[in-house]
Each structure stands twice: as structure tokens, then as C-alpha cells.
Amino acid sequence: MQVEPQTFDRVLSSMCTEPHPDARAAAERFLATNPGDPGTYPAVTDLEEEAISMLGEIAGLSDPAGYVASGGTEANIQAVRIARDRFESRTDSRALDRTGNPTPNVVMPESGHFSFQKAANVLGVELRIVPTDRDHRADLEAVRHSVDEDTALVVGVAGTTEYGRVDPIPELGEIARSVGALFHVDAAWGGFVLPFTDDEWNFSHAPVDTMAIDPHKMGQAAVPAGGLLARDETLLDELAIDTPYLESTSQATLTGTRSGAGVASAVAAMEALWPGGYQRQYARSQRNADWLADALVARGFEVVDPTLPLVAADVPVSTFDSLRREGWRISRTATGEMRVVCMPHVTRSMLESFVADLDRLQCRASVPVVSDD
Ligand SMILES: *Cc1c(COP(=O)(O)O)cnc(C)c1O
Questions:
Q1: pLDDT value at position 180?
Q2: CATH architecture designation of domain 276-364
Q3: Is CATH 3.10.129.10 the classification given to domain 21-273?
Q4: How far apart are CA 221 and CA 70, in angstroms?
């Protein structure tokens, strides 16, 4: 029997979504291509250049370097790798008058994604996690206290995974510059909605060196399509490894063989949706998030204001568990709030039936059961 994938009709916590029809078609057409081998697969290599140039346009960068990664995780790991290698070349001379080589550190708010833990493990850098303020954004004083001459990278998040918050990007960029560190913005989820808000988050707003921006999340491309952007090509040179058996001479990606499906679907989605389609989607998602937040507040729950289309609310564990049993795919933040991400497949009627289930379950929990007859 053929196994069917799940439908999206009760999926409320995923950061992925149904791909745009053009993205799905492009993914299928380019499934058997490998942009890791440009000498053999030139068509998908041309598409990848187009993907990077469009991502640059979205992120306020006119001559971007970068590539389509497997996701935000790879883009974040690679950004840390660039910074570590930059740091090492910058400190080579300084290390000579010390006993050992200094360990580079990466300074990141506690709202940063767990992929940076992976990066720190793999790359042998120290991860310095600093607190966020009452609105879940990076606390600038704490960041200032944590950076020092061994800071290789400062990370800011533009659209956090748990609360959809945007860190003070220009200020974080200044702090990074003040200690000679690189500055990375993680816009893996937020990158396709922030162009339509007043937030300062991109290359044109701040001295950003690298960015993660994922077409396979709000960009409506097929998985796997992440994006690593760099302000200039020399940053990517830090990643280049010689490739003896391929016609191309070097490779900057972490993966070797990778699917052209992600590349082609990213281009197809962006061609179909940038900018008007994404703008309309953002407006729809934000209205849904505001509607859900209001509905939850009206029922007495404490809700974190959804400044981007992501709602976190303090719902009792028993209710959360009952909703999961009803088939709703919801998740929890580190501190236990229920989290709903208003992705493109999340419609108003889905949310209405979710709230109806919530009412029914709450009612069952608080009212003694009386038999009908
Ligand atoms: C989803 C996410 C990531 C990880 O991206 P993957 O595509 O799952 O590897 C990194 N950072 C942020 C802010 C995210 O929301």
C-alpha cells in the first residue's frame, strides 16, 4: 500500500508549508540535477545565480554572493564557519605572543535557533548566549558586555522561531563592528515577510555580512531550499574547498551532491510571488495571527503580541495535550507557551475550527458532565 504524506489541514506549528504550484512543478522537473557539479549541470547552476540575485533583492543587497543551502541550519553553520576562519586569519599574528590560540566566540541572544549549537559543536567555537529583554528581543547591554577581542561573530535574529521577534539589527551590527567581528542575521523564517513591515532587518539597514533566508519556509518553495547570502564574494572564499574530480575548481557548500529541486523551486516561487504575492500572503497571515491572538485573549489566555504572523499563548498543558489528541499539530516554546505559526496553508476557517475545539475542550474541562436525558 502506498503511504500518503500528511495533509496540512491541522498543521499549525510548522515553519514549512504547501509549496506554490509552480515551485512544486519546478522541483519535479529539476529533481535529477545536481548544482553541486556545475560542470555537468549548467542549467540548474544558472538558476542558482538567479535565485541568489532574487534573494539579494528581497534582502536589500544589490550584488549578492551566496548559494541555495539545504536550509537555515546549513546557512547558519556556514556563517559561523566564515566568521571563525576570518577570525583565525585576523588573529594569526596576535596568537604568536600568547601561549595558545584564542578560542573564537559567537555572541547570540537566547532566542537564537538551536542550529547555532550545532555550529558551535562542529566548528569548535564558544557560543555565548545572552538574555533577551521583556519583549523577547536581544538585550543590547548584555550583548555589549559579552563581546570581546575574541568575538568572531555577532548573531541577530530577524523573526525568531518562538515569538517572531526582530532583534535591534542596526545596533547589533554596530556592536559587532566595534570589536572587529562579523555580523550575521538569521532571517530563515522572517525574510519573506519582513520586506512588508517597517522593521530594519536587512543588508541596506545595517552592516550585515551574512544572512540566512529560507525559500522553503515563508518563501513557499519545496524543501530543501535554504539561502545563504554574503555581502561580498570574498566572504564565501573562506568556504571554498578544492574539488579535484569535478570540472569546477572549488565548492563553497557544506553538502556535496544536492538536489536541484530546491534551487529550481526557489526560483519558481520567487518569480511567481515576489513581491505582490508575498505581500498579500503576509497581510493575510498577519490578519490571521491577530484574529487568533484576539480570540485567545477574549478567552482569558495570556498572549504574546504577534508582531509577525506567529502567536504564542499560555494555554494549560492539559488543554494543549487535548488539542494534540484532536489532531492539531501545535508545539510549545521553551517556556511552555502554545505556539501557532500562521503559514500560508493556515486559513481563517482552520483557525475557527481550532478555536471551536478549544472552546469545547475548555468547557469539558471546567463544567461537570451532565447527562442529556
Ligand atoms: C527554521 C529556522 C532555522 C533552521 O532552518 P532549517 O531550514 O530548519 O534548517 C534557523 N533559524 C530560524 C530563525 C528558523 O526559524
A1: 97
A2: Alpha-Beta Complex (3.90)
A3: no
A4: 12
Task: Identify the segments of the chain with pLDDT beneath 70.
Answer: 93-99, 365-373
Q: What is the pLDDT of residue 249?
A: 80
* Residue with cell string 515551485: 23
Ligand 1 atom at shortest distance from the alpha carbon of 113: 11
The ranges assigned to domains in the chain are 21-273, 276-364
276-364 shares the fold of 21-273 = no
Beta strands at 303-304 and 310-313: parallel, antiparallel or unpaired: antiparallel
Residue 111, ligand 1, Cβ within 6 A: no
User: pLDDT per residue over 237-277, tens digit each?
Assistant: 999 998 888 888 889 999 999 999 999 999 999 999 999 99
**Ligand 1 centroid distance, CA of 158 (Å):** 11
Task: Write down the pLDDT at residue 373.
Answer: 52
SS3 assignment, position 127: strand
Instruction: Write down the pLDDT at residue 90.
Output: 86
- For residue 368, whether the previous peptide bond is cis, meaning omega lies within 30 degrees of 0, is no
* Cβ-based neighbour number of residue 349 at 10 Å: 8
The CA-atom distances, in angstroms, between 40 and each of 68, 244, 257 are 18, 14, 12
For residue 112, the CA-to-ligand 1 centroid distance in Å is: 10
